[in-house]
Design brief:
alpha/beta; Rossmann fold; 3 domains; 10-stranded mixed sheet; binds ligand 26Y; pyridoxal phosphate; pyridoxal phosphate binding
């Protein structure tokens, strides 16, 4: 968009003054940021309006991405960039002697998600808009985001994340589009005079769903889509029924906090309320919007695609059925045809404990009408399946099983498409986790390997690298990521390799300064920066990383002249508050950090930095500075991973097991350009099946390993309570569920190869360049194009305009 610096400066001053009634010179960073954000939002608003109108006018098919989590990250920089205004804004502010970077840091980072699944949803929003596709997000406006993590004495402490404190300039409260969501009470069906069975409700709890809309700005294509987040309120007309603040709590708490767990399913009533609240409001508003299209209801699937991001929004299936039957008076068969063609489902995890199953009694009581519909879906499913496939398959795949509603089964049965998020993961779904369904509906299954938006994760997070690539291959890769492969042509170009090394060093210096500032630790920017950033979970094996560091430490102590390349081990990870073991791992890493970072024998050879409160904003600082990307989950456990892609795109070399998307990274960049170690998923399956694994044998037979494990309990690591014992126990006495000891030797070996390669900076840079140049296939733009072609059947509206 066209705005001159002069115009911007004038409008910014006005904006500030109209908001705060004093001059910008007196503003705090938060105030200045708010004024700037609102001004940018003003610039966005006409495109936002026009995009919406265009979709309606052309009767464009819309995708609705239903997700309990979104992690958009800070939006000022990315919105200004996508609008093409970033340079103007920076220049204008510097004329006013203000620093854009400083103001941008004042923005709260909305932590409305736990991890990968939530960040993926936001990368997808960015790509949908940038491809000019009509894609909307639908989620919850949690008043408190994922807890703010602090370390006290090395222990994780959780603080509330009040991200709305200084207001949120990007959102628009949309009171015209509220919906009513009903919970509980009694429901019965009665025939009306047209012979329709219609439900009657009594004693329901009615909750008003208020949408807050946030613009999702496409990259220089005038497209602005919508992210709609719902907030729960008391219906105005019922306010008089509430006499005390306490009585209003059950309503307000629905959208108060995000569940901070991404692995342990807890059958909590409040979570089910959240899920239905978001689903019901979302589906109601879709159907309302659909009416503007003036096409028959049977054509809903031609105009609407609803995507179910993991099972959390799977109640979309019965809710859409409810609306079509109870409110639109369609027959069951008509409604089912529409629902099934409209819905599609992505699975993001094979962890048993993360697969949602709700007690039937709970569902019945909280959502009586929805339960009736689920029961009917289940009955019809069983009726159809039993004669064709027999007892075993039918009962294994039923929605209602042993007193619970199996949400994955509901999602698969109610969707025309089911996908995993990396090739291996999809294979595992088809051959293991959902294998009976694969027999019933092979045509539904497909793979969609995850992707990331290069705009946020390269262009914006790593401007110096972006400049270097532009210099060498021109700017086409920004719109057509596949062009990045042209960069491969520079793998032997000395000048390029030197510049690439310089860029990395600059990024490392910046991170080193930040480490000094927030952790008080001095690190050498020339050391190798080794990064593991992701949720803390035993299957991701941060403790394998820990054991290797401890091993190195012991070797250095035994021989201070040992030839180790100086390394900084960098961690960022939150543990679910109730995940005791994960928190113990955090504590041990922190205590080891205290030991290692202050040991004069060690010096710069080894430093450990565990950042607090890992999230999108921290990731943007860490990733451009990484040399090594740790992707060391037990093979078969990590569905895809996405930090692996972000790190690769920024030139880190991957150190990985053959798990999730690591396999595809290896295939694209070539085996010689990353470090692979450990069991394959096939070997993991075999080991589990033949039950032959004896962790204690490894402990007893490998002296180096024994040495390391013993150091957990010997008092070597200071200030531990029982955390060292807990780790030792789980690994040695409880037979090491995630085969950490089994993979230890090959991990150490791979780490030594990392050292050797780092000594040859030229060769390192060459491999780094090849990684960058091979990262294009992991652009979320391509991932979204595949969802659009294969699942949603939507096209770019920008292309359409151009005819
Ligand atoms: C039901 C509740 C316990 C629950 C809450 C959140 C269950 C799962 C989750 C989140 C899962 C998640 O983030 N999965 C990650 O999705 C990424 C995007 O597909 C993958 O890259 C990553 O491997 C996977 O762990």
């Amino acid at each position: 968009m066209e705005v001159t610096v002069k115009q911007f400066v004038k409008e910014f001053k006005q904006q500030f003054q109209s908001m705060y009634a004093y001059s910008y010179e007196e503003g705090s960073n938060e105030q200045l940021y708010n004024a700037l954000g609102l001004l940018v939002k003003n610039y966005i608003s006409s495109y936002w309006k026009e995009t919406r109108e265009k979709y309606i006018k052309n009767s464009v098919k819309q995708v609705y991405y239903f997700s309990m989590e979104f992690l958009p990250g800070r939006q000022l920089r990315s919105n200004a960039y996508n609008l093409g205004l970033l340079d103007v804004v920076k220049e204008g502010l510097s004329e006013l002697e203000l620093s854009f970077d400083q103001l941008a840091e004042a923005e709260a980072d909305p932590a409305l998600g736990n991890g990968g699944l939530g960040r993926l949803a936001s990368c997808f929003m960015d790509s949908l808009a940038s491809l000019g596709m009509a894609g909307n997000g639908n989620g919850i406006r949690y008043q408190y985001g994922l807890f703010r993590q602090k370390f006290v004495d090395g222990y994780q402490v959780e603080l509330p994340e009040n991200w709305l404190r200084y207001r949120n300039v990007w959102e628009t409260r949309n009171d015209k589009s509220t919906c009513m969501v009903r919970f509980g009470g009694n429901v019965w069906l009665e025939e009306n005079h047209q012979g329709h069975l219609v439900p009657h409700y009594e004693n329901t709890l009615n909750v008003l769903a208020v949408p807050y809309d946030t613009p999702m700005v496409g990259y220089r294509n005038d497209t602005v889509n919508n992210l709609r987040l719902w907030s729960a309120e008391i219906p105005v007309e019922e306010e008089a029924n509430y006499h005390t603040i306490e009585e209003t709590e059950p309503i307000k708490e629905i959208t108060q906090v995000l569940y901070p767990d991404d692995s342990n399913y807890e059958g909590r009533l409040l979570r089910l309320k959240q899920e239905y609240f978001m689903v019901s409001a979302g589906v109601q508003s879709i159907i309302r919007h659909f009416r503007k299209y003036n096409v028959p209801r049977k054509n809903i699937p031609d105009k609407v695609a609803i995507h179910i991001n993991d099972t959390h929004p799977a109640l979309v299936v019965p809710e859409l059925m409810r609306i079509l039957i109870d409110e639109e008076h369609l027959s069951w068969e008509q409604a089912w045809e529409i629902t099934f063609k409209t819905c599609s489902y992505t699975n993001h995890t094979i962890l048993r404990e993360a697969l949602e199953k709700w007690p039937i009694d709970m569902m019945k009581e909280l959502l009586p009408r929805i339960y009736m519909i689920i029961e009917e879906i289940n009955n019809r499913f069983v009726e159809n399946t039993l004669p064709l496939y027999g007892e075993r398959i039918t009962w294994q795949t039923a929605i209602l099983q042993n007193g619970v509603v199996n949400m994955a089964h509901l999602a698969v049965i109610g969707s025309h498409s089911v996908n995993g998020v990396a090739k291996l993961h999809t294979d595992i779904l088809m051959n293991d986790v959902l294998k009976d369904f694969f027999e019933l509906y092979p045509e539904r299954f497909n793979n969609k390997t995850n992707g990331i938006t290069q705009r946020r994760w390269v262009h914006l997070a790593n401007p110096e690298l972006t400049k270097l690539i532009d210099e060498k291959i021109g700017e086409n890769w920004k719109l057509t990521p596949s062009e990045l492969k042209v960069f491969k042509g520079f793998e032997k170009d000395k000048d390029t390799l030197n510049k690439l090394t310089d860029v990395k060093l600059k990024n490392k210096k910046r991170l080193a300064d930040y480490i000094k500032e927030v952790k008080g630790i001095t690190v050498d920017p020339n050391a190798l920066f080794d990064v593991q950033i992701k949720r803390l979970h035993a299957y991701k094996r941060q403790h394998l990383n820990l054991l290797h560091i401890l091993h190195r430490y012991l070797e250095i102590k035994a021989d201070p002249s040992a030839d180790y390349v100086p390394r900084v081990f960098i961690f960022g990870a939150k543990a679910a508050p109730s995940y005791h073991y994960a928190k113990q791992i955090i504590k041990v890493i922190n205590s080891l950090a205290d030991l290692v970072n202050n040991d004069p024998d060690v010096g710069d050879k080894l430093k450990i930095v565990f950042f607090e409160n890992y999230g999108v904003s921290l990731a943007e600082k860490i990733i451009p500075a990484a040399d090594i990307s740790e992707q060391i989950s037990l093979a078969s456990m990590e569905a895809s991973g996405t930090s692996n892609m972000k790190l690769m795109a920024n030139g880190a070399l991957t150190l990985a097991t053959l798990d999730g998307a690591n396999i595809e990274i290896k295939d694209f960049v070539g085996e010689e350009n990353l470090f692979v170690f450990g069991l394959s998923s096939k070997e993991v399956y075999e080991l589990k099946a033949n039950q032959s694994y004896q962790a204690r044998e490894l402990y007893e037979s490998n002296p180096k390993l024994k040495n390391v494990l013993d150091a957990l309990t010997s008092g070597t690591i200071p200030n531990l309570q029982d955390e060292g014992y807990a780790l030792f126990d789980s690994l040695v006495n409880f037979n090491d569920e995630y085969f950490v000891l089994k993979d230890f030797a090959s991990y150490v070996e791979a780490q030594n190869k990392v050292d050797d390669l780092y000594k040859d900076q030229n060769e390192w840079a060459r491999k780094s360049l090849l990684n960058i140049a091979s990262s294009a296939p992991f652009s979320a733009d391509y991932t979204i194009q595949r969802y659009a072609d294969d699942i949603w059947k939507v096209r770019s509206c920008v292309e359409e305009d151009e005819g």
